[in-house]
Write a structure and sequence with these properties.
Elements: E1 5-10, E2 22-26, H1 31-47, E3 50-57, E4 61-62, E5 65-66, H2 73-91, E6 102-108, H3 111-118, E7 124-129, H4 142-150, E8 155-159
Parallel strand pairs: 2-3, 2-7, 3-6, 7-8
Antiparallel strand pairs: 1-6, 4-5
Amino acid sequence: MSASQRSSVSGSSVSGSSSELVIVVGVDGSPSSIKALEWAVDQAALTKASVEAVTAWHFPNSYGVPLPDGTNYADLAAEALTKAIAVVKNARPDGPAAEVRIRTWIAEGHAAQILLDRSADASLLVVGSRGHGGFTEALLGSVSQHVVHHAPCPVVIIRDREI
C-alpha cells in the first residue's frame, strides 16, 4: 500500500478469505453515492458479503499541472468516506445490515480506474449516478459509464432519487 492509499475495517469481525463475497462501492460523499453505499450494505446483509467502500481523490490540475494549494485531499476524501459510512450505519443500527463488515480503501487517482482495480475479485460493483436535470438525466456520469463497460463483475448503478 502506497502513501497515497489507506485502508481500514469497521463492523463485525469476519475472517477474510478468498471465497468471501465482496461488494465494492464507490463513495464520493454525493447523495447518490450514499444511496449506493446503503444499497450495497443491504445487499451484503442479504448475501452474507462484506463491503469495500472506495474513495478516489486527485490534485486539481491547471493545464495538466497539479496545483499545490496546501490542501490535504487524502484527508478530505477520508472524511467524506467516514461521514458516508456513519450516515449508513446510523440508519441501520439493528438487524442484519448493522452486522455487515465495511472495509475502506482511499487512493489517489482516477475514480473509474481505482474502482475497476478494486473490483477485480468482487462479486458486485455498486456506484451512484448524479442526475443533472433536463435531458441529461438520462445519461450516466463518466465514472458510471466507464465501469459499466469495463468492470470484471456485475455493476449496479443507484440514483439518489426516484424517477
